[in-house]
Write a structure and sequence with these properties.
Strand order of the largest sheet: 1-2-3-8
Distance between the termini: 155 Å
Number of helices: 2
Number of strands: 10
CATH class of one domain: Mainly Beta
Order of helices and strands: HEEHEEEEEEEE
CATH architecture of one domain: Sandwich
Structural class: alpha+beta
Shape: flat
Helix content: 10-25%
Largest sheet: 4 strands, antiparallel
Strand content: 25-35%
CATH topology of one domain: Immunoglobulin-like
Length: 213
């Protein structure tokens, strides 16, 4: 019996020895928020960008396009038959003839002949000096040019022998000069506009009346 007790004691001591030699297993803990302590950082998803429509500036309304004064642009010429003051003169287009090839040829056989596909246009002009009786105005046919739908500017065509052609010169306030101007343009061109090149000031544009044929 004594031997049995000794064996039991020995076995018990062996069990205790094994327990003390085996290390504790690791404990996995979930991070929690504790008052006074900082929890472990947690992974976060990428932020979603939301457009703040409340602070987006509204689209500005388009500003109205300013219209240039009549006669100051090719697209807005002085209407046919109306006069405009330019370089102290009241200028008015009183008539137009197209084609004017025969008129030019009859004036002088040596006048330049238009190239193929082109023709003469004759424009009749009236100019009244708006200055005082002791003030002078000056006019010259070379102050004028013409342009049509092709957009190519035509210089004054020097023509001789045609009665009533506009002559250069000076005239006093109240006096009036009238004359004819000649330009070579394309036969298919439309919307012919007369241009007056002011020496001091912007160009003036005149629409032509319906051309006589």
């Amino acid at each position: 019996m004594k031997q049995i007790i000794i064996v039991v004691i020995v076995l018990a001591l062996a069990v205790l020895a094994c327990d003390s030699a085996t290390p504790d297993a690791p404990v996995v803990r979930t991070a929690t928020t504790v008052s006074g302590a900082t929890s472990a950082p947690q992974a976060t998803s990428a932020p979603t960008i939301i457009k703040d429509t409340a602070t987006t500036p509204p689209t500005a309304a388009p500003k109205p396009t300013a219209t240039k004064p009549v006669g100051t642009s090719r697209d807005n010429p002085v209407p046919a038959g109306q006069s405009v003051i330019a370089s102290s003169m009241a200028l008015t287009i009183t008539g137009a003839t197209r084609p004017a090839d025969l008129i030019v040829a009859q004036g002088n056989m040596f006048n330049k002949k238009p190239e193929a596909g082109k023709e003469y246009v004759m424009i009749e002009l009236a100019a009244t000096c708006e200055g005082k009786t002791d003030q002078k105005c000056s006019i010259n046919p070379f102050f004028f040019k013409a342009v049509g739908s092709a957009g190519v500017v035509a210089d004054y065509g020097f023509v001789t022998g045609v009665p009533g052609s506009l002559e250069s010169g000076e005239f006093f306030g109240g006096a009036k000069k009238v004359g004819k101007l000649f330009f070579i343009i394309g036969k298919d061109e439309t919307n012919i506009v007369l241009i007056f090149n002011q020496l001091l000031g912007s160009d003036i544009y005149f629409a032509l009346p319906e051309a006589k044929k």
